[in-house]
């Protein structure tokens, strides 16, 4: 009974009189609740794994407008691409369209890190395949070879070839490329440099390195290898997946290449695909100061004769296999499987006219269209000159550099108006203005 009485007295003090003891209990409860809330926030903000920090919900990147349409999100993506293209040079540059590239892949144990999904190694192989396909599409007269860095040595994964299927086949089997050990930049660069020592002077020599480690195991002084690359005019570009290393930055700066550190998956692909366009040639410096353009040397090419499928089988000089279809060298009549390539018998470069035409647009890019900011009598056309689609009658709310609220983009030469879709299609695919043919 005394216990019940004491309990009743405590309740009466808390409810009726608001005693100090009741206040203390009440304040203590608020403090506990506050600590629980703060602890819950800490759990939400804390990320246990690196891949959780880079996790993005793709359905949140595209937002619907008030009418429930996704057209505004698509227009925004096109506008971003247009702004990026406006920063690119639109005048003619001296470029090397006959390219020879060695792709150096880091196959060290650090490529098994999961900061990029699913691993750095799997993502590197995926983007490398896409890079090879796009590179050959934009540079049909080029050749690619693949070299790996694993266990302190350089491994030749694929020979230099002008056929994208051969390059893709070399990096298709991931089990043969399983990462192990530490990389060696010096051994891999020396192997790549030796494979390009026989190339002519009119072609470019490039090395693209995908590097995910923070260490390199070299048998000698890597600066001697760098000096040899500078002497041989080899351009080195590095795409780093971990952090910037001084030697990597120095190699890119001294050879005229590009260097970038990937922040996430999308940025990794962006900086890798920036290496697809042919590099510009810098003017050679004179002895007394100033700059002078290198002289233009003529080179010999051959246009082959294509054999039909019904022709009698014969041995090809590239694979020594019996095949019916193929190409005949115009100089020595040797049978070749694919073009463009170099004849293994006489050394003549074999190309076709479509390959030359597809490489031509790099030398003379289409000038960017001007954004029409307001309607005037000088733009009487109500439809796009390219696809005949009607222009929107009301201005959109999108604003920014190089974006037209009317959806009109005018060619500075022929003064025809094009829609945003045709603007992207002309500059990224056709590479020729349908209005003026330039």
Low-pLDDT runs: 1-28, 39-52, 285-291
Structural class assignment = alpha/beta
Strand content: 15-25%
Helix content: 25-40%
Instruction: Note the overall shape.
Output: globular
Q: Name the CATH superfamily assignment of the largest domain.
A: von Willebrand factor, type A domain
Please tell me the total number of domains.
3
Largest sheet at a glance? 6 strands, mixed
Distance between the termini: 104 Å
Strand order of the largest sheet: 3-2-1-4-5-6
Quick synopsis:
By secondary structure, this protein is of the alpha/beta class.
Record the SSE blueprint.
Blueprint (H helix, E strand, L loop, with lengths): L1 H16 L2 H26 L4 H4 L17 H16 L12 E8 L13 H19 L4 E8 L2 E9 L2 H7 L14 H11 L8 E8 L10 H10 L2 E7 L5 H10 L3 E3 L3 H9 L10 E2 L5 E2 L8 E2 L2 E3 L6 E2 L6 E2 L2 E3 L6 E2 L4 E2 L6 E2 L2 H8 L9 E2 L37 E2 L6 E2 L1 H11 L8
Architecture overview:
- One of its GO terms (molecular function) is zinc ion binding.
- It is found in: Nucleus.
- Pfam families: C1_4 (PF07975), Ssl1 (PF04056).
- A zinc finger (C4-type) spans 329-346.
- Helix 1 packs across helix 2 (20-45), helix 4 (71-86) packs across helix 12 and helix 5 packs parallel to helix 10.
- With 438 residues, the chain is of the alpha/beta class.
- It folds into 3 domains: 88-279, Rossmann fold, CATH 3.40.50; 301-360, no CATH class; 366-438, Herpes Virus-1, CATH 3.30.40.10.
- It contains 12 helices and 19 strands.
- The N and C termini lie far apart (104 Å).
- Strand 15 (341-342) and strand 16 (349-350) form a beta hairpin.
- A 6-stranded mixed beta sheet has the order 3-2-1-4-5-6, with helices on both faces. A 3-stranded mixed beta sheet has the order 9-16-15, with no helix packed on it. Strands 10-13-14 form a 3-stranded antiparallel beta sheet, with no helix packed on it.
């Amino acid at each position: 009974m005394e216990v019940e009485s004491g309990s009743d007295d405590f309740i009466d003090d808390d409810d009726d009189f608001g005693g100090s003891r009741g206040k203390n209990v009440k304040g203590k409860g608020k403090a506990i609740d506050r600590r629980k809330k703060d602890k819950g926030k800490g759990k939400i903000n804390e990320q246990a794994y690196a891949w959780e920090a880079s996790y993005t919900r793709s359905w949140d990147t595209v937002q619907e407008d008030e009418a429930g349409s996704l057209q505004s999100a698509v227009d925004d993506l096109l506008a971003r691409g247009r702004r990026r293209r406006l920063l690119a040079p639109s005048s003619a540059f001296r470029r090397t369209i006959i390219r020879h590239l060695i792709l150096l892949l880091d196959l060290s144990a650090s490529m098994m890190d999961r900061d990029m999904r699913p691993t750095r190694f799997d993502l590197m192989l995926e983007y490398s395949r896409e890079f090879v396909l796009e590179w050959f599409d934009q540079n049909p007269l080029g050749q690619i070879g693949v070299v790996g860095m694993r266990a302190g040595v350089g491994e030749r994964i694929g020979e230099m070839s002008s056929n994208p299927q051969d390059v893709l086949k070399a990096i298709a089997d991931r089990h043969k490329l399983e990462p192990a050990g530490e990389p060696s930049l010096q051994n891999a660069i020396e192997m790549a440099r030796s494979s390009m020592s026989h190339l002519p002077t009119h072609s470019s020599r490039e090395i693209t390195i995908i590097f995910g480690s923070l260490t390199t195991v070299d048998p000698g002084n890597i600066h001697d290898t760098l000096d040899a690359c500078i002497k041989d005019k080899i351009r080195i570009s590095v795409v780093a997946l971990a952090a910037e290393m001084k030697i990597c930055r120095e190699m890119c700066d001294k050879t005229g290449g590009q260097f970038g550190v990937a922040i996430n998956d999308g940025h990794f692909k962006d900086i890798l695909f920036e290496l697809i366009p042919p590099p510009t040639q810098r003017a050679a410096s004179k002895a007394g100061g100033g700059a002078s353009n290198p002289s233009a040397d003529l080179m010999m090419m051959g246009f082959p004769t294509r054999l039909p499928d019904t022709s009698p089988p014969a041995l090809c000089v590239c694979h020594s296999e019996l095949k019916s279809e193929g190409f005949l060298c115009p100089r020595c009549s040797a049978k070749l499987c694919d073009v463009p390539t170099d004849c293994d018998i006489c050394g003549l470069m074999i190309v076709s006219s479509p390959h030359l035409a597809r490489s031509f647009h790099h030398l003379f890019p289409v000038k960017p269209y001007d954004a029409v900011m307001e309607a005037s009598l000088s733009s009487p056309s109500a439809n796009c000159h390219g696809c005949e689609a009607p222009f929107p009658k009301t201005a959109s709310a999108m604003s920014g550099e190089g974006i037209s609220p009317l959806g009109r983009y005018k060619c500075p030469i022929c003064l025809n108006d094009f829609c945003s879709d045709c603007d992207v299609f002309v500059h990224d695919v056709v590479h020729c203005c349908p209005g003026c043919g330039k």
